[in-house]
Amino acid sequence: MTDGALSVKERFRLGRDRRKQIRRLEHSAWDVKLRKEDPLKLMARSMQGRVPHLIKMKYGLMAASPFGYFRGAVPVMAYDLSRMGHTGIVSQLCGDAHVRNLGAFAAPDGRLVFDINDFDETIRGPFEWDVKRMAASLVLAGRTANVKGADCRDAAAVFAEQYRSMMTQFAQMTVLDVVRYQVHRLKMVETVEGILRAAERATPMHTLLALTEPKGVMGKSSKQNKKKAPENQLKGERIFKTIKPSLKRVTGEIAEKVITALGPYASTLQPERRHFLAQYRPLDVAFKVVGTGSVGLRDYCVYMQGNGENDPLFLQVKEEVESGYAPYLESGAKRKQHQGHRVVDGERAMQLQSDPFLGWTTMDGRDYLVRQLNDHKASIQLEGITATGLMEYAGVCGELLARGHARSGDACVLAGYLGRSSRFDEAVVAFAETYADQTEADWKELVGWLKRTRGQIVSSK
């Protein structure tokens, strides 16, 4: 979006000039009268093509709480944001920026890293759309945890201030320093330190015991299975468990298609990682239900084994459809890109380090992302979070989102627009509270509709 020939001062000036397009305080504005579409119909359209019997489950997860609704309603917020003015300052968007889409996972070198880790909705777009969504999520998360309203507002303010101040710092760094920037204070943030502790336990061997069982034990009582020593449980051939409603072993033609799709996937990896993958052999396949926004999309797990029983690898083969923001940002030709490839590009653009087995494939004309499943992954749990914990976590959210945008956009232009005053922060906080209120109203509408119709799908016409 910027000309590489421009000087740093010119890029700062370019950012400041965007205030003529939309003043910083104008970001506070949200009015439901801007809507020309029914949120329920927007959601119904997003359900098209999904596994029919899982659509009711997704609506149920969204109906559980306003925050649950927010997680599943990206199509609604994408539409709402498109009805407002924006800066036109483009970076890679996470697209589904919210507090539970940051988490820990294993880097290629085996160390645990903490970063944005969900990119199903990623796309290039106005940077402030991510900022507004994350700020609103902090308010809703705080309300879910019964944090006082003033403290929820303060958490959103901490996030916005940290985002702005970090962008000022990134604009003063060398390009390579921005690329390499790491957040070193994570273990001093109690909520993040707890996530890292949980991630340490989420090893491939832990996943092996949680998701698979020795072949031939099906039908035996869980008490009988538990009597076996852990080392004996790992002996012999293992297959996926069926854990209703989230995990179901698949065999036959479907399993064969999933395994076959790993061939084209391997070609999307770097050569040395392709070599590593070739040393694993697939043993079993399962269908898995994940997340909230992704429920209803096809998601498979492949259990693979490398150097013996103590070397499991679990790959997730996850269907990807176009970003909920695509209708408002991209031309028809651009929207025809491979959606798994889109997610990989967005993830690599924003993350400091990415999953070494990150790639994409196609199956039955549908696009899929491929990555490791549960390799030291963990995210925040909202139950019991305190006001202090929420505010500390909000600061980390601001720092990591700023880093992702600085890596994939132009920190000088962004810093020029944001400036050094708190005008943008104040506007984002006001928007976050107003939009959290709107989300609660939309959630009540969904709950009411589900009660009236018993979960029948709303017509998208």
Describe the structure.
It is a single chain. By secondary structure, the chain is of the alpha+beta class. It folds into 2 domains: 8-198 and 382-453, no CATH class; 203-372, no CATH class. Helix content is 49%, strand content 14%. The protein has 19 helices and 13 strands. The chain has helices at residues 8-17, 39-46, 52-63, 66-72, 74-82, 127-144, 149-172, 175-180, 190-201, 204-211, 222-227, 230-233, 252-266, 271-278, 326-329, 339-350, 387-408, 411-418, 423-453, and strands spanning 90-93, 102-106, 112-116, 123-126, 212-214, 238-240, 247-250, 281-288, 299-305, 312-319, 359-363, 366-372, 378-379. The strands form 4 sheets. Strands 7-8-9-10-12-11 form a 6-stranded antiparallel sheet, with helices on both faces. A 3-stranded antiparallel sheet has the order 3-2-13. The longest helix is centred in the C-terminal third of the chain and has 31 residues, at 423-453. The two termini are 37 Å apart. The model is unreliable at 221-232 (pLDDT under 50). This is DUF2252 domain-containing protein. InterPro entries: DUF2252. Pfam families: DUF2252 (PF10009). It comes from Edaphobacter acidisoli.
